[in-house]
Design goal:
This protein has 544 residues and is an alpha+beta fold. The protein is 37% helix and 31% strand.
Length: 544
């Protein structure tokens, strides 16, 4: 191959460098510059311009919507952007590019997010909310549950009060100076000038005023960034699960700071407590088991009066029991245990509860326990007393048995008499009842016969009524037929008379002649002279 004076082959001088869309050309110029030319592109090598040309694959960094892209530039700058985003690594501008997942913090309606910023601020953001952790602006994020308060529950909240924006107070060593009033024009300059002169009291340097309040339920409480909830640390009983209990169990031991909580119960409550190492007047040792019933009435008074409410109750109850037992012997104490269930026996406890805003409702004495030797002696004495009492009760029982037998015989005789009387009375009642049933049966039979006779009469009456209706119907039918016949005869007679009239007959004379009564017999005698006659009718006709 031919070569130029520099010794480079001629074919290489005109060699093309091709970069696709996924590549770039890295060109080193003869003046020392380095350039990156993104593809697609074609570049021919020139020994007068280029020192070296290379085809380099692109390094792409892609961040999704749930990722961050952190870019470190060569000049020291840092940039954090949230996806979706794509960036190509460039050695001339970028030192490094990193893609990492976004840390999301999601709080629902019963939660809040505690955000600590890099400038020291702390914010409490109520849910529902979704936040993404930004390492350039956030130090940490935490999700805390809201405090759920029932109807009879409460929490104590402290709030740091922020200073007023315009009123600035000058505080001297021994007195409080009121802020001066400024005009509107010079207010800002005057306020800025007085801020430099502010001094705190010698015993209040750096102190910030804090306000306390009690939040009662039912509620869902979420504290602000300038608020915190008071945590109580009281005496309590440690259970098998390692948790502290306010009520405890019978015979347990109260331990300081065993109960840590934030929610107060403002309702009647109870507590098991055992007063140990109680000494009587005759130096007998025993443990007294109690159950205290109390109710919290004033939370503010309790906060101002005590740091450990149950500890005060325990100490006061112990003092009252010690005082009560020191005045009595062991036997007298056992006889007077009913007084341990009376509130008047606990004056120290009652007074201390009133001072702490609570009320003593009731004290229940649950028994006692002592050493095994003393208990054995007491059990032996009890056995002897019980034996004597049982023997006395056995003798009394024998006498009662005899008296009971006599009373039983007398009662049985009286019961037999009452039974006989009852039997006679029952027999008479049964006879009377049978007679009543017979009379009722006869009455029912007579009534049934009467009903049958009445039904028969009703049937006969209905038959007669039907026959009478039928005769009336027949008579009516005959009268109708007769009326029709009479009407026809009348019409025929009228027609005949009309015909006679047409023939010239005098209807008046005709009707008069027709109306004359017809004799039964008509005798006609024709004679020229007037005859002398004697007419005798037949007897049959006379009788008629």
């Amino acid at each position: 191959h031919e070569s130029d004076k520099s010794g480079m082959p001629c074919w290489k001088i005109f060699t093309p460098y091709v970069a696709s869309q996924h590549q770039q050309l890295r060109v080193q110029w003869t003046d020392g510059r380095i350039s990156n030319l993104p593809g697609p592109q074609v570049l021919y090598f020139s020994r007068f311009k280029h020192h070296k040309v290379e085809v380099v694959n692109l390094v792409r960094h892609v961040a999704s919507v749930k990722q961050y892209m952190e870019t470190q530039f060569n000049d020291g700058r840092q940039e954090l952007l949230r996806g979706p985003l794509e960036r190509i690594f460039d050695e001339t501008q970028h030192a490094s590019i990193k893609v990492f997942d976004v840390k999301q913090f999601i709080a629902d309606q019963t939660q809040y997010v505690c955000v600590q910023h890099c400038d020291g601020r702390v914010d409490h953001l109520r849910g529902p909310i979704e936040l993404a952790f930004n390492p350039f602006t956030h130090v940490k994020m935490e999700i805390h549950p809201a405090i759920r308060l029932a109807a009879n529950e409460a929490v104590v909240v402290y709030r740091k009060e922020c200073p007023e924006a315009h009123a600035v107070q000058l505080i001297a060593k021994q007195e409080l100076l009121k802020p001066k009033r400024y005009d509107d024009k010079t207010q800002e300059a005057a306020c800025s000038a007085t801020r430099v002169l502010v001094a705190d009291q010698s015993d209040q340097q750096g102190a910030v005023h804090v306000q306390r309040r009690v939040v009662h339920g039912p509620a869902v409480f979420m504290p602000d960034s300038c608020e915190w909830v008071h945590t109580f640390s009281w005496h309590g009983s440690i259970g098998k699960n390692g948790k502290g209990s306010k009520t405890g169990t019978p015979g347990d031991e109260k331990v300081p700071h065993a109960l840590e909580f934030q929610i107060l119960r403002c309702m009647p409550d109870q507590m098991y407590y055992t007063v140990r190492e109680v000494r009587t007047a005759d130096d007998a040792r025993l443990d007294v088991h109690l159950m205290l019933f109390y109710e919290m009435l004033d939370i503010e008074k309790m906060l101002d009066s005590t740091n450990d409410l149950l500890g005060d109750f325990i100490n006061a109850a112990s003092a009252d029991i010690m005082t009560f037992a020191a005045r009595q012997t062991y036997e007298l104490l056992l006889q007077d245990t009913s007084a341990l269930s009376q509130i008047d026996t606990y004056p120290i406890l009652k007074t201390r509860m009133e001072q702490t805003g609570t009320k003593l409702l009731k004290v229940v004495y649950r028994g006692y326990s002592t050493s095994q030797q003393l208990q054995d002696m007491h059990d032996s004495a009890i056995m002897k007393r019980t034996k004597l009492r049982l023997e006395s009760e056995a003798a009394l029982g024998e006498q009662d048995k005899r008296a009971t037998e006599l009373r039983g015989k007398q009662e049985r005789a009286e019961q037999e008499q009452r039974l006989e009387q009852a039997a006679d009375k029952h027999k008479m009642e049964m006879c009377s009842l049978q007679e009543q049933r017979k009379r009722a049966a006869k009455n029912e039979e007579h009534a049934q016969q009467m009903r049958h006779m009445q039904e028969e009469k009703e049937i006969q009456l209905s038959q007669l009524r039907a026959e009478h209706d039928e005769e009336i119907r027949k008579l009516g039918e005959e009268r109708r037929v007769e009326n029709v016949a009479l009407k026809q005869n009348h019409e025929a007679e009228t027609a005949r008379l009309a015909a006679l009239k047409d023939m010239g007959v005098d209807l008046t004379q005709y009707l008069c002649a027709m109306a004359v009564t017809r004799p039964d017999q008509h005798l006609k005698i024709d004679s020229d002279v007037t005859p002398n006659l004697h007419l005798e009718l037949p007897r049959a006709m006379n009788q008629k």
